[in-house]
Design a protein that fits this description.
Layout lengths: L2 E5 L2 E4 L4 E8 L6 E8 L6 E6 L6 E3 L7 E6 L4 E6 L8 E9 L12 E2 L3 E6 L1
Parallel strand pairs: 2-11
Antiparallel strand pairs: 1-3, 3-8, 4-5, 4-9, 5-6, 7-8, 9-10, 9-11
Amino acid sequence: QLQLVESGGGLVQAGGSLRLSCAASGFTVDYYVIGWFRQAPGKEREWVSCISIRGGDTFYADSVKGRFTISRDKAANTVFLHMNNLKPEDTGTYLCAGQLGPSCMFDLGRYGYWGQGAQVTVSS
């Protein structure tokens, strides 16, 4: 059974950092495009970042560019989202999603596998 599990969320002050993990089971994450999305209360789910198969290409939403970094650990079968200089507007539930590759996809409807989400709260 293909499964994605997020971890690493929490409460942090503005300017702080967090690292989210997206651990995959039942499939090899290196052959899947992995995307990160987030959803704030009362708002639509928005795309944040994605990494292509084998980590060849990475993409970021303008709102997080320069602050967030997505990476892939093949041995751990895990994708990470390193978040620095966090802002209150980064608050939300962060979800990772996977789909067979090869290239990044920015539309949430294109992803077939989703994790349960991790809460990130940034206080001002």
